[in-house]
Each structure stands twice: as structure tokens, then as C-alpha cells.
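Dear H.,

Thanks for agreeing to be a second pair of eyes. The structure we're designing against is below in C-alpha cell form, covering all 232 positions.
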């Protein structure tokens, strides 16, 4: 009798980190259930990238949930606030940027946790990273550890069924270049991904926001060409 493969929920935004995380989960032998969000983000084109990546890598199911975080606002991604451009590394690390979406990873992980319970999946993967990132507080190891503890206390799976759901952060201490090399080795097509916070009408990346600059830096350090289009 064929042994049933373990299930994992993978948060998939459509960018480099989430695409690589998805590939890592599949490499580990999980049946992947990808979870994305249409949350009112100005770069909603990333969802097309998420769909392309999910299809290319062959997930079991790709679920896209609608949440209108524009009603809360407070972020350059969901509100009428300018996206920072042309910042250097020191500026990026000086303070939490305007592109921070209040409690976003907490919200996303909560939905992932709920779906994992329903699927009877014991694993959740999220592509948070503390090296090449823009200072988001919900990308830190201590945040994930705290959420992990809460997840064990807050779910039927963790309290009654003793099926404690583990949150995996395989990229947490990797540079963007290391992430890109890892994904390339796993067959990730980065031409299908999207990272820009402020794309043009055509969907082309601006090449100037923090996310674009970190992406370009990563490809340069990895010795590779970035396959996506940028505005001239």
C-alpha cells in the first residue's frame, strides 16, 4: 500500500522567497497546498506570478483568499502613501519602512494555521528572512518562535489532537544570493516571479523600490541575470 505523503501549507506571494520556499517544501517530500492573498496590495500583479509558480511546480491546490486591508491602511502597499525609492542599505535598515503592512504575517499565518488544521497538515512554510530584508518585525526568528508557541496553544490540533503544527522558515538566515542559488538548483523559474512593490501599468518592475533593489543585488551577487522586465 502506497504511503500517504505529508501535507504542508506554503504561503506563496509570487516573489523569489516564497517560490524558493515552495520548492524546498516539495524537495522535502510534502504535498504542497499553496496559500496566497488578494489583500488590496498595489502590486496585485504578484498574484499572477503566484499562479504561474504554483502551476509550474505542481502544487496540490492553490488557494487565493480575499482580504481588503485597504480599509485598515497604514502601509504604502495598501494606502495612498508613497513607496520609498532608491534607498541604500543603511537607509533600509534604519527604521521600519512605509511598505510594512501592519500585522501582515500574523494575519497570513493565522489563515495558514486554520487551513492546516482542516487539511490535517502538520507543517506550514513561510519565506521570512532576516538578512536581505527591509526591517520588518514579523520576519524575525523571535516572532516566529512566539507565533509557534501560540499556534500550539490556540488550536484543536495542538491541544486535543496532539498534532502540533510546525512553522518552517528555511530561508531565515540566507542571503538573497543564497536563496536564488538554492532555488535555481531546485528548478525554480524566477522569470515567473514578481517582487516589485510599485510596478508600472504593464506590470514591469520599477527597479527602484526596496524589493527591486534587494532582488537585483541578490542576482548580481549570485552571478546571474535577473530574468524579469524592468521599466526603463
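And this is the sequence the design step returned. I haven't edited it by hand at all.
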Amino acid at each position: 500500500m502506497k504511503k500517504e505523503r505529508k501535507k504542508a501549507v506554503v504561503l506563496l506571494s509570487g516573489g523569489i522567497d516564497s517560490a524558493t520556499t515552495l520548492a524546498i517544501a516539495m524537495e522535502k517530500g510534502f504535498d504542497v497546498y499553496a496559500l496566497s492573498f488578494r489583500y488590496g496590495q498595489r502590486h496585485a500583479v504578484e498574484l499572477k506570478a503566484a499562479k504561474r509558480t504554483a502551476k509550474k511546480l505542481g502544487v496540490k491546490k492553490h488557494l487565493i483568499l480575499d482580504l481588503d486591508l485597504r480599509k485598515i491602511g497604514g502601509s504604502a502597499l495598501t494606502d495612498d502613501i508613497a513607496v520609498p525609492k532608491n534607498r541604500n542599505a543603511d537607509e533600509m535598515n534604519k527604521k521600519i519602512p512605509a511598505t510594512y503592512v501592519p500585522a501582515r504575517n500574523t494575519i497570513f499565518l493565522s489563515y495558514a494555521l486554520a487551513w492546516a488544521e482542516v487539511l490535517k497538515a502538520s507543517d506550514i512554510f513561510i519565506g521570512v528572512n532576516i538578512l536581505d530584508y527591509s526591517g520588518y518585525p514579523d520576519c524575525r526568528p523571535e516572532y516566529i518562535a512566539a507565533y509557534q508557541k501560540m499556534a500550539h496553544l490556540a488550536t484543536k490540533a495542538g491541544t486535543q489532537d496532539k498534532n502540533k503544527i510546525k512553522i518552517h522558515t528555511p530561508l531565515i538566515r540566507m542571503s538573497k544570493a543564497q536563496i536564488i542559488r538554492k532555488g535555481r538548483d531546485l528548478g525554480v523559474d524566477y522569470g515567473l516571479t514578481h517582487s516589485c512593490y510599485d510596478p508600472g501599468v504593464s506590470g514591469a518592475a520599477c527597479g527602484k523600490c526596496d524589493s527591486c533593489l534587494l532582488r537585483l543585488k541578490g542576482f548580481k551577487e549570485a552571478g546571474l541575470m535577473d530574468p524579469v522586465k524592468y521599466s526603463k
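Two observations from my side: The chain has a mean pLDDT of 94. The longest helix spans residues 104-119.

Warmly,
E.
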